[in-house]
Design a protein that fits this description.
By secondary structure, the protein is an alpha+beta fold. The protein is elongated, with a radius of gyration of 16 Å. It has five helices and three strands; from the N terminus they run ααβααββα.
């Protein structure tokens, strides 16, 4: 039997799962890249990034863009974030496996 309590509530929210999926695929992503890819408003994206950062799953990086010299904010997944995301996916895989007809 699957222990659904193992699903991480922080990651489970749709927007945060989307952010974590992108950051797990490659890091870092700029704020503008995340916003564009996920079609989220500034406020919505910031709120979810703050939650993930507070949990220790995401790290904010302040850099300067090479082409323009303008300040740029990027985000990357942390080691704790990678571990939590892999554990989350593992639970999802167990759910899919159990739901298949035998």
């Amino acid at each position: 039997m699957i222990d659904f309590s193992q699903l991480d509530r922080v990651i489970h929210e749709k927007s945060r799962l989307s952010i974590m999926t992108l950051l797990a695929s490659r890091s870092p992503w700029s704020f503008q890249e995340l916003k564009s890819e996920l079609s989220m408003s500034d406020g919505n994206l910031i709120t979810h990034l703050r939650t993930l950062t507070k949990e220790g799953y995401v790290r904010e990086l302040k850099t300067v863009a090479n082409d323009s010299g303008r300040p740029m904010t990027q985000y990357e997944i942390t080691g704790a974030g990678s571990s939590a995301f892999r554990a989350y996916v593992k639970v999802l895989e167990a759910i899919v496996q159990q739901s298949r007809p035998k």
